[in-house]
Design a protein that fits this description.
By secondary structure, the protein is mainly alpha-helical. It has one domain. It is 48% helix and 7% strand. The protein has five helices and two strands; from the N terminus they run H-H-H-E-H-E-H. Strands 1-2 form a two-stranded antiparallel sheet. It starts with 14 loop residues before the first helix and ends with a helix. 9% of the residues are buried.
Length: 108
């Protein structure tokens, strides 16, 4: 069965516009989010995934899963040295990052 379409008032902006505005406001509030676009981060990410290509969280549970995300052990919150330090990086799969790690960050 097909899901019914969601009704929106004619004056409401489209969801894509709402998301774009939210992202722009977030970048103003937290300019360090743009660091993820820098070449130095892309290189650090690549080095980490080459050094540890498997998800460290899954390996701890005896599961072999390819890592696709580099997570920071300690949230950097704009601290450049924590952001770029390889000692603060861990390789994780998208599932671990989007579920376990995100819920840990929200609760702290």
């Amino acid at each position: 069965m097909k899901r019914p379409t969601q009704w929106r008032p004619p004056s409401a902006p489209p969801p894509t516009e709402v998301r774009r505005c939210f992202d722009a406001e977030r970048r103003k509030r937290e300019p360090w989010r743009n660091w993820y676009k820098l070449a130095v981060w892309q290189r650090a990410r690549m080095v980490q995934l080459q050094r540890q290509p498997l998800c460290e969280r899954c390996l701890a549970q005896g599961i072999v899963e390819a890592a696709t995300v580099v997570n920071h052990h300690k949230a950097h919150k704009g601290d450049w040295s924590l952001f770029i330090s390889s000692a603060n990086h861990e390789s994780v799969c998208k599932r671990c990052h989007d579920s376990v790690i995100q819920s840990e960050e929200k609760s702290s």
